[in-house]
Every structure is written in structure tokens, then in C-alpha cells.
Automatic annotation (TrEMBL), chain A:
Pfam families: BPD_transp_1. Its main location: membrane. CDD domains: TM_PBP2. One of its GO terms (biological process) is transmembrane transport. InterPro entries: ABC_transporter_permease, MetI-like, MetI-like_sf. Residues 66-278 form the ABC transmembrane type-1 domain. Keywords: Cell membrane, Membrane, Transmembrane, Transmembrane helix, Transport. The lineage of its organism: Bacteria, Pseudomonadati, Myxococcota, Polyangia, Polyangiales. The chain crosses the membrane at residues 12-32, 70-91, 103-123, 151-174, 260-282. GO terms for cellular component: plasma membrane. Signal peptide: none annotated. It is found in: Cell membrane. It is a multi-pass membrane protein. This is Sugar ABC transporter permease.
From TrEMBL, chain B:
This is Carbohydrate ABC transporter permease. Residues 65-255 form the ABC transmembrane type-1 domain. GO terms for biological process: transmembrane transport. It is a multi-pass membrane protein. The keyword DNA damage does not apply. GO terms for cellular component: plasma membrane. The chain crosses the membrane at residues 61-88, 100-121, 133-154, 175-200, 234-255. PANTHER family: ABC TRANSPORTER PERMEASE PROTEIN MG189-RELATED, ABC TRANSPORTER PERMEASE PROTEIN MG189-RELATED-RELATED. The keyword Transport applies. Pfam families: BPD_transp_1. Keywords: Cell membrane, Membrane, Transmembrane, Transmembrane helix, Transport. Belongs to the binding-protein-dependent transport system permease family.
Amino acid sequence: MKPKRPLDPYLFLAPTALVLGLFFFWPLALVFKNSFYRWDMLTPPEWVGTANYGQLLASGELWGTIGRTLSYSVVVVVTSLGLGLGLALALDRPGKLYAFVRGAVFSAYVVSWVAVALLWMWILDADGGLLSTLCRSIGIVPKNWLGDPAVALYTLAAVSVWKITGYSMVIFLAGLQDIPRSLHEAAALDGAGPISRFLHVTWPMLRPSASFVGTTSLILSFQAFDVVRVMTQGGPVKSTTVFVYAIYEHVFVNLRVGRASAMTVAFFVLLLGLTALQLGSWRLGRTGARRA
Amino acid sequence: MKLAFSRILLVVVALLWVGPYAWMVLTSLRTLPEIVAAPAWPLPKSIQFDAYREVLTAIPVGRYFLNTTVMAVAIALLQILLALPAGYALAKLHFVGKKVAFALVLACLLIPAQVTFVPVFSMLGPLGLVNTFAALVLPFGVSALGTFLVRQALLSVPDEMIEAARLDGASELRIVYGLLAPMLRPTLASLFLFSFVFHYNDYFWPLVMTTDDDVRTLPLAVALLREQGTGVRWHIVMAGNVILSLPVLALFAAVQKQILRAVTARVG
């Protein structure tokens, strides 16, 4: 449509442009700029070239952080996807009881990360926690879930799985709604058992949902922070220092804006890579669905 | 046999997801000596509200709750207020640079707060805006996803309807807020709820942008309950947890459908 007055569209977009410019694009440019400076936010910034990046590579911090973030994310995504799919298939039934359990699983996704993190800290507490008490009562020595550097990252991953499985479950449930009953009936008439119906009817139809959930939760788990800040503060011995927590520590503990900015640039580039993966898998998912 | 299996599964799943909440509430209703004596079992002999009383004296819960709610409502309203005219321009009006503008909005989906917080913090610091309500609300004033969803919803509104309103002498702003906004009610309601819940729960942004009690939010205060003092008093922390999560759980129970709609909405 023709705008009523030629300037209207620009006026309508102006507030949005202002906010996006000030709080998205300008900060992004600043991150790149700051990554070439040494700056503690108290004294004037000092140009250091690519020294921040050099430091991150030389100290092994960059690769270590990428490794920890990836381990955490892969465990979270794979487990929550598998569990979410299983729960969607098992709970896709009429009845109030099923609706209640579906709601309970999803409610964890709606509650604050802080509440979930604190609740699980208490459940995992070495002295009085529910899990440790249960372990002892059946004669197992409980692990030091949050204090053991070999275990802590996976404990955080497990807590995150508990929180976000409801998300993948509802996406899969929505996907299941889109599968026409007639497909199942036709397959059943052809003599297909439940397993072959799942493999040849349900799964091909759910593939787009799976790639959507997989990539969105991968990107979201890459941005994990709250659960780390509340439960472990990056420890013990850095074993849970994932990307965003590392950036946070550089700024607010070490007052190193330059190093934090270089870290942020690396983080942003990785996110872009993951998004490219996402776009690619959507396209694959779509053609996959069409073929099926 | 099949039925029995699905019943057992149902019980296991319910225990795994309802159990922790029950444990949280039970703990909050106990007293410290009870927890020290027998932390996990048996059930408390009588219900004690001591922990809640202690939370209320330790932190100004009302003040934090108000801060959090006002912040989350302000963000959600601002996002809707700005997304409507922007979505209208992007969906309905012809102008030079439309494609670029739309691409830039979509590009912001790739820039999360975790990427911008360091520069935003260093930008707002010298302006004296750290520790203000503005630092909590303004950076989230536009939701790229919200703008996108409003634009998509407006694409399906027939042009004739807008032409007719123009002929009736309605101003463009009246068309956007008076005619189109009510038509988009389901989309806007989902956006509002999604945004409200996200920012009510948010810990990251308020943590890095505030140090002052005046603007701090409830998730920060509850997380601090654990860090304070010597020896963690879990009944108090769990009471704080109940206070923090109850409003969201109640909201979820009341408007589950709209929240699910918002969560399952996709880009692309």
C-alpha cells in the first residue's frame, strides 16, 4: 500500500530503529573495537592490537571454554531431545491425569532458572539433600555432585535437562498434532506394527520439529549463565566456566573489558556458526518432510 | 500389560517433575532444628511458617516483587507498543529501504543480551544509567521476534480494510492502535505473556546492571538468600523459592494455552 504521507513508514520504524541501533548494533561494534584495547573501566583504554586474542589462544582459555560449553550443550540437547520425544509420545493421550503430568513437566520450563538451580542445590546437598539421603539409604555412596570437577559440569547439564525437557516435549506434541490420523490408519491396515509405524510415519513427520528444537536449544544452552552463577560460580577449578560465565568473570571480577570483548567476539562468531547450522538443518528438515 | 506400563511411566514422570516442587514446599514449612535432625524424612509434624517470616524480615519482598513486576510489564508493553507501527510499516506500506529494514530487524535475532551486555554496561556507566530502571527496561524495548510476529500477523489483514478506515478519515496511528491492534489480540497476548514471564524470571541482566536495592529484582534477592551468612539455612532459601515461583506457576496454570502458543510459535 502507498503510505498516507511519504515519511510515515520511516516515522513508524524510528523508535524500533533507535532501540535496535543503540542496544544491538552499536554495542556489537563496540565489542569489536574494545577487543583491541586493554581497559579496566577506570583508567583510559589503551590500544593493544590483537594481544587479547593472542592471550586467549596462548593460555588455552579459549579452547578450554569452547570445550566445556560444547560438552555441556551437547549433553543438554541430546538428552532433553530424546526425553522430550519419549514423553511426547507417551503422554499424547486424552484425560486429565495426562494433561496434569504434561503441565508439570512443562512448568519447569516456565519457572525461573534461579528457583530451579536453588531447588536442585538443596536436593543435591551432601548432608541433608534428598538425593544423597536416598543414595545412602540404598547403600550407595553419593557423589560430590557439585564439588567434584569431573562431575559438576554434568550435574549442571542434568539440572538443565530437567528444566528444558518440557520445551522439547511441547514442540513434539505440537508436531504430533499435525500428523493426520489417516496416515496411521493406512499404515496399520498395511500391517505395520507400532515400531515400524513410528519409523515410517511418525518420525519422518516429526523431523522438522526435531531439527527446530535441536538447534534452538543448542543456541540457548550455549548462552547458559544463571545455572552456573547460582550453583557453582564456574568452579570447582574452572570446570564449569562456560562461555558467558567466562565473559562475566573477565568484566566483573577481573575488570578486563578488552579480554572480555575478545571472548565475546569469539562467542558471537560461534553463535553465527550455529545459526548457519540451524538454517541448514531447517532446509534439510523441510525437504525431508516433503519427501516423506 | 501395555496399560500397566504406561501407568507406571506416568507415576515415574510425575514423581520426577512434581516431586522436587513438593520437596521445596515441604522444606519451606519446616524449622531449622527439624532439618538438622532429620533433613529428608519424616514429614514435618506440624506446618511452620517461620521460614516465610524470616524471608520477609531478611529482604523487602514486597519492594522486590513490585520492582520485578513493573519492570517485566513495562518491557512487555513497550515491545508491543513499538512492534505495532513497525510491523505495520514492514507488512503494509511501500517505501524505499523496506527490505533492508526488515533484514536488519531479523539480524537482531542473532544478537542476544549475552553478546551486548559488556558494551552496554560500559556505555551506561559513564551516563550514570547503571542501577536505574532505564537500564533494565530500555535495552529490551524492542523485541525482534515480536516485531517479526506482528508483521507476519498483519500480512493476512486485507488492504481493503485499511483503505476503508482511511476513507472514513481515521489517522494512521488510529488505524494501527485502534483497528489493527484489537484484531491481533491473540498474537499480542502471547507476546505479552512470553515477554513478561521471561523478564520476570531473568537473572542475568538485572545482575549485571544493578547493585542497588532500589532497583534490584526478586530472582537476585532470592539467589542472595543462599549466599548470605554462615551455614545455608535451606528452609529459608526454599521459602524464598516458593515466593519467587508461585506467581509464575499460578499464571501458567491460568493461561497455559496462550503461553504454549507463544512458545511453539516459530520463525521461518
